[in-house]
Every structure is written in C-alpha cells, then in structure tokens.
Amino acid sequence: MTEKLVIIGNGMAPGRMLEHLLEAAPGRYQVTIFNAEPRVNYDRIMLSPVLSGEKSYEEIVIHGDGWYIDNGITLYKGHRIVTIDRAARTVTSDHGVTEPYDRLVIATGSVPFIIPVPGHDLPGVLSYRDLDDVQAMLLAAQSRAKAVVIGGGLLGLEAAAGLQSRGMDVTVLHIMPTLMERQLDPAAGYLLQRAVEARGIKVMCKANTKQIVGEGKVEGVELADGTVIPASLVVMAVGIRPNAGLAKEAGLEVGRGIVVDHGMATSDPAILSLGECAEVGGQVYGLVAPLYEMARVAAAHLAGDGTARFVHADTPTKLKVTGIELYSLGDFADGDDREEIVLRDAAAGVYKRLVLKENRIIGTVLYGETGDGAWFNDLKKKQTDISEMRDTLIFGQAYQGGSPLDPLAAVAALPDDAEICGCNGVCKGRITGAITGKGLTGLDDVRAHTKASASCGSCTGLVEQLLKLTLGDAYNPAAVQPMCGCTDLGHDDVRRLIKAKGLKTIPAVMQELQWKTSCGCAKCRPALNYYLVADWPDEYADDYQSRFINERVHANIQKDGTYSVVPRMWGGVTSSKELRAIADVVDKFAIPTVKVTGGQRIDMLGIRKEDLPAVWSDLGKAGFVSGHAYAKGLRTVKTCVGSDWCRFGTQDSTGLGIRIEKFMWGSWTPAKLKMAVSGCPRNCAEATCKDIGVVCVDSGYEIHFAGAAGLDIKGTEVLGQVKTEDEALEVIVALTQMYREQARYIERIYKWVKRVGVPEIKRQIMDDPDKRKAYYERFVFSQKFAQVDPWSERVSGKDKHEFRPMAAVGFAEAAE
Amino acid sequence: MMNKMDWIAIGSIADIPQRGARCVNTPQGRIGVFRTADDRVFAIEDHCPHKGGPLSQGIVHGASVTCPLHNWVFSLETGAALGADEGFVKTIPVKVEDGCVSIAPGKMLLAAE
Fold it and tell me: Which range among A271-285, A440-454, A761-775, B80-94 shows the weakest confidence by mean pLDDT?
C-alpha cells in the first residue's frame, strides 16, 4: 500500500529530495506539497540574474507544472500550512485544506531578518528572498530613482548590482568596516568595494542605520551619525533566520532551527525537516550545497535506507555579480599557529591568499582570478601536505610540475574525485563517466544527467572543459553558439538583453553587449536590425545600411547583378487589367524573362537597377504594391478557389487567403513566411507543407504550422481547429507574433518549433486566450508602422541614391 | 605616366551613405566608392573575383564589404579577400578634399596592364 507523504514548502531542498526519492523508491509514496508561494519550484540562487535582467523567470524554473503531473504529485500553490496535528497526523492550510500524512517533511526555509528600527514597516521597504521581492524591486526600479540596500553581504551586493543595472542610483550601507567580512579578509573586502564602486554603486561601511524616514512611504534612511540618505526604495539584506515557528507550535524541539538528527528526523520520528529551517549538529545552513546534501540524506531515509548520515563540509562562497570574480572557503582568520601565502597584483586587481596550518590548506580567499578554487578546495579537503610545492602553490595548479599555463591541462590534471560543481556536490569522475557512459554531447546533457552546473552555473567553464577533454574535437558547444565573430553571445541572449536593457539602436546594442568589432559584420547587423524592428516597432528607426541588398532596394538581386520584381497578387488572384499592365511593363523595359512562381505570382526577371523606380511607377499606376518576394517577412498566401467554384469546397478559402494577406503584408519576420489556405482536405493549395497553413473543413478551419518544402521536407503540425474566419485570423496572427518575438534571425518556423516544442506553442496560442490576444494586439500595433508600400515610397524619391550611379566618367574625361 | 591631372571629381562625400557605397561608371567598368562609419572613403572595382557580384551592393562593416551574392568579404583598404577565401579586387586611388571626392581610375588601368 502506498504511504502518504506530505511536504510543507516547495523550495530547492525538498525539490531535490523528491528527485532522489522518485529514483530510489518510485511509487512508494503518494506525495502532496503545500507551497506558501503561488508557484512551482524555481532556482532561488538565480534570483540575482533575474533582477539584473540576464535571465527570465521561465529560465530558472526547476520543476515545471508538467513535472508534478508526470510524477502524480499534488501541489497546492499559495497554501500556507497553519497547523500540524501530530496526534491525528494531519496538516491544515490557510485555505482550509486538511491532508493526512504517514510521513511529514517540514521545509519551510528561512525568513529575512528585518532590523526593527523605526520605519521598517513603511511601504517601499523590501527584503530579498523570493520572486515576489524581485518583482517588487523591478517595479520600483522603473522610477529610475534612488535605492538604499542595507547589508553589504552576498545578497545585499547582488541586489545592489541588480538594481543599479536596472538604472537606479544605489547606495549600500554596511555596518562592518569591510564588505562580506564573513567570507573575505579585509584586503579582498577592499578590492571588492573598489570594484563595486567602479560600477557606480556608492558604498558606506561602518554605517549604522538609526531609522527609516518617510511620511506614508519611504523617503530616506537616517544613520546614527545623523546623515540622511534619500531613497524611494530600501532593501534589507542583513541576513536570514530559520523559519521554525510552525514546528515550534507543533511542539517539536526547536533551537536556532528545527532540531534534527544526522538522518534529518525531528524529535517526532514521523516528521523530517531539511533546508534552511533545519538545525543539524548545532549548525544551520544557507548555501545550497549542504541543503542538497540534506535532501540526499532525507530521501535515503524515506526510501528505507537508515544508514545515510549528514556530514558537515565547508562550502565555497562565490559572488554572482557579472564581472566580479570572488571565491572564498574555510577558515582564514589570523592565528599564531597559522601561516599564509599571499599574491597581490594591484594593476590586474588580483589578490590570492592561502591560510596554512601544519603545511595543509585550511582557508582560501581568491579575488580577481578564481580558476584554481577547485584545486585548492581539493587540497584542503584531502588534507594534502603541500611542503613540496610550497614555492609555487599560490600560482595555481598549472604551475606545478613545470607544465605550461593551460586551463585544459589544469582540468585534465584534477583527480577523479575532485569536486567540480560545489552546489550539487558533483565530482570530475561522475561527469566524465556520464559523458562516456551515456554518450552525452553537450552542456545541457551534462546538466540533465549529473546536475553539474545546473544551479548557480559558476562551474560551467570547468564542465565545458571536461566535455572538451573527454570528447576531443567531437565536442561542439552548440548550446552557446555565438551570433557571429563579433560577440560571444548567442541569438537568444541578445534578444533577451535587448528587451531587458531597453536597447533601441544598433550602436547601443554593440556598446552595452560589448561587441568585439566597431561596426559589426554582415551576419550580426541584419539580425540586430530585425530584432530592433520587431521589439520596438514605434521607436526604432530601421537601419537600411544593415539590410541585405534585396531588402534595401525591395527587389531580388540576380546572378548578373540585375533584379527581379514580383508584384503582390492578393491570394494569387489577378485580372485582365493587371495582366495587361504587367505585359505593358515587360514590353516597355524589354524585360527578358517572365515566370510564374511557386507562390502563385508573376516574376519579371532581368531588370536593370536603374530602371526599378520606373518599373514600380508603372506597376503602381495599375494598383500593384510590392509583393515582398525578397523579404524576411510575409511573402505569399497561396489559395485554391474554394466554395466559390469548387464542387468540393467547404469554405471561402480564396477570400480567407486574401484577408490574411491584406492583414499581414508588410510585416517583417525572422525568416520568410509562406502561407496557404485550402478549401477542403484535398488540399490543392498545399497548405500542409507551409510555414502556416489553413485547411478548411465543414465545421470550420484547421490551423497548421511548421511545415517545410525546401532544404528540408516536413509536413505541418496541427495547431488546432476553430469555427470562424475571425478566430482563424486571430490564431494565425498571434502565432506569427510569437514567432516574431522569439525566433532567431533566419530561423524558419519549423526550426523554431523544433526548439520550443509544439505543446508550448499550443499552450500559449490555443489554451491561453489572454496571451493570444496580447500577441495579436502587439502585431496589430507594429503593423501601423510596417504597412507602407516600399515601392511607392521609392517612386516618390526615397533612397534615390540607391538607384543612380554617383557619376559617369566618360572617355574624354578619362583621357585628360 | 601619372600626374595631378589624373584626379577626377565624382561628387560630394555627402552623396555616399555612411556604411554604404555608390557606383561610378567608367569605360573600364564600374567602380564602387565606399564610405565607412568613420567617414573614410575607399574605391574598388565593383566586381567580385568569385562570381562577379556587385560589391557596391554589399553590407559595409568596418573597412570591409561583404559581397551580396555569396558573402565573400573584402578589405576596402587592400582589396584582399578576408577569411578563408582567396582573391583580390583592384583598389582605385581616392581622395577627399573639402568634402569633394575624387578618384584616379587611370591607376586601375596601370595595375591591370
């Protein structure tokens, strides 16, 4: 019979415990989770990158809703447990849900410590603990006003850096003489302060907060010496304390936290506790590595292995602020029985200090250059006698044994049991073993199979080096494929940062994202131009010098330097008047070739560039506009004759095709976008190999997408079925806008879908009407700026330099 | 023989878009005249040695241009193909005085002879 396991709290520790438990004893428990936060399990370590805009919430989710469903777990979101009845073995939530348990796990985490000074409860005073805090800070940051962060520890500095990168004027108040004094010695604390100040953040040490002042909301912070620092936002990041109130009320033994034995059992053997709320061996923990160790032990006990024991280990500290490298571990206080080795390079901003006792490392502080942290940690853990290499120890592993300074060699030299990922306690041997044993080929694989580099990510470089060492040239780090040689960032990162940082010109993108070239190249400039056009339709001025020639002159360049011209024929329907006008143009300009295209249009090939405006002028007089046959944008909507003529037609496919084309023409998309509407499932318009297709049926419209009939051949996926033309249009437009906002430049829909997955697109477009409506409206908004016929603009004189030579040098002049 | 008289004025620097190019037709063929983001001006023959693409229609980045047909990249300063491709286009002397651009196409002929 399955036992009932109830978990209070849904943070990283219980999440990890469940992963272990589901692996060791699948089906043994029926699991119910109560989460006071209204969301799934996410990576709290990554809140700082969310605050600074380097990551989005979706990217830090550890277990999505699907995971709970797949594993048969009931998750109550936004339910706070208010009572534990140990006699009846039940828990009750603030929404009145009562759940019986056989085993209970308390993982209520910690609460931020709020200094009880006057004014601490004013609106505008925040803590920094969960996503709600981050969202409140982001809201406050929109004012671009002043912020004060109280606390110069790990969290405080990450919060300050995040707020500053969001445009706020930030001051950090720290009560001690140097920053992060619990992890850093004064010298490294000073270097850190200098680096923080260099980013434009003010730092005040020995600053004792007297009160927070303001009428009805925060207006400033007053220090003990009377100084007042104006601020509209105050973040308190002075520490955390275990959240043990519920356990105490239930009569469990509580010290600093909920007291547990080395098997994670509380004073009631039916109840376990783990995470930041638990106290084991007189210690409470706040870093993720020991919490994950607790998760492993708790899962083992729940699975029936009573031998697992939690053992204390020092955990290295790293600061997650981009551009500041910092690593500290162990004990580094001065003492008579201790010696130290120090390396300083003031110009390079490097400081390294090793604290030794009896020729063994007991503490390490690295600032500016932290690559050897793992090696020093390994020496410390193994209590290695370092007297042999003492002279060169501080220079790091690469200098031992005379080998050259090569990071790959340094990683190769690490023993198999050296720890690579501190957060998840993964050693080198497990990673290389998984790579060879399971045939892993990339970083994401390693993360999925071993968890290494899956939490804070600071060991990503080491993991990539292990992939390279193990796989040799077969390792192709596609996960981080840069856009081009001008940057190390991939397309997705660039797109996200354009939005997060509000970058609205190509020079701003290149400056802020540290482009390596002054002016980009022919790969990145068109991509950036598209991203900016798509993201800021009303504000961005299209940079035609960053477009390929076809989009710059609105025609298709041919192998001999002439151009082809394709006028728009809505839905592929034309008339004698239009055909006559085309025939006249062909005669007048002696156009050598006229051809019918695959998208039901007429193509005139071999036109001289100088003639283009005159050709367009004549076509324009007959009512033609550009067919955008050259564009990464909406090309053609191909149709069959539908219910107007066809004896099998179920709907007006021609009319719908024309309607879609008139609605969507002129829009730029990541790659070309070809559509079709067929009037019945016989599918004469070949809608099932298009980027987006519609197949009409008796009861409505089947919307297809992600087909291909070019380099690759692929049938479409079915997005869903709708009843009316209006709904069909809304779905198609919303899908197009989602693609416009998310895909990489030159990525056709079917490739984008392969990355994102059909279910996710269905979820956003078909199942979430609000999201669909929002996509639709953003498309409509951007069309206000996009639906201008480029041909008539150029007939009226725009960009005329494009179509005329600057000068003609005759024989007479040349002979002078 | 070359002398000062070989310079031919072709127009104003303002006629050429920054990070762009214009063409000049000559009896010896077309010349592309380029202007970089930092207002340096270069002239090369408008004919890619690979498949004859009109280089003046390419995207200009730094002091280079990418051919619109098959993405070969050329240095505007030396005329040499950059990256993995090998080849040269002829460069033509160009000068800018008081915003007025002049070229000396005679030198291209010399180079070709």
Answer: A440-454
DSSP string, A209-271: EEEEE-SSS--EEEETTS-EEE-SEEEE-S-EEE--HHHHHTT--BSSSEEE-TTSB-SSTTE
Chain B partners within 8 Å of A522 (Cβ): 58-59, 61, 66, 71, 73
pTM of the model: 0.56
A646 is in an annotated binding site: yes
Answer yes or no: is A680 a known binding residue: yes
Helix (H, G, I), strand (E, B) or coil at A634: strand
User: Which of B57, B72, B108 has the most A C-beta neighbours within 10 Å, making it the best mutation to test the interface with A?
Assistant: B57
Chain B residue with minimum CA distance to A807: B24
What's the rounded Cα separation, in Å, for the pair B59 and A543? 11
pLDDT band at A524; cut points 50, 70, 90: very high
Which of A518, A521, A549, A559 to mutate to probe the B interface, most B CBs <10 Å?
A549
> Averaged over A88-108, what is the pLDDT?
95
- Mutant choice from B55, B59, B76, B102 vs A, greatest count of A C-beta within 10 A: B59
For the segment A42-90, what is each residue's pLDDT rounded down to a tens digit? 988 888 888 888 888 888 888 988 899 889 999 999 999 999 999 999 9
Confidence of residue A531 (pLDDT cuts 50, 70, 90): very high
A8 strand-pairing partners: A34, A106
**pLDDT attached to residue A446:** 87
Q: Do B22 and A801 touch (CB under 8 A)?
A: yes
**A423 appears as a binding residue in the annotation:** no
State how far the Cα of A474 lies from the Cα of A183, in Å rounded to an integer: 40
Does the pLDDT of residue B113 top 60, yes or no?
no
The fold of A551-622 is Sulfite Reductase Hemoprotein; domain 2 (3.90.480)
* Per-residue pLDDT tens digits for A173-183: 999 888 988 77
pLDDT of residue A407: 65
The pLDDT of residue A135 is above 70? yes
Least CB-CB distance to B61: which of A521, A808, A814?
A521
User: Which is more confident, A421 or A574?
Assistant: A574
Q: Which domains does chain B carry?
A: 4-108 (2.102.10.10)
Topology adopted by domain A634-786: Sulfite Reductase Hemoprotein; domain 1 (3.30.413)
Q: Which residues pair with B74 in a beta bridge?
A: B65, B81
Q: Which residues of B touch A805 (CB under 8 A)?
A: 22-25, 30
- Which value does ipTM take for this structure? 0.88
Q: Using CA atoms in the order A750, A756, A758, A764, what is the torsion angle rounded to 10 degrees?
A: -120
Count how many residues are written for chain A. Answer: 816
Judged by CB atoms closer than 8 Å, whether chains meet at A545 and B51 is answered as: no
Fold of A125-238: FAD/NAD(P)-binding domain (3.50.50)
The Cα of B66 is separated from the nearest Cα of chain A by a number of Å equal to: 6
Which chain B residues have a beta carbon less than 8 Å from that of A807? 10-11, 24-25
Helix, strand, coil shares of chain B, percent, nearest 5, are 15, 40, 45
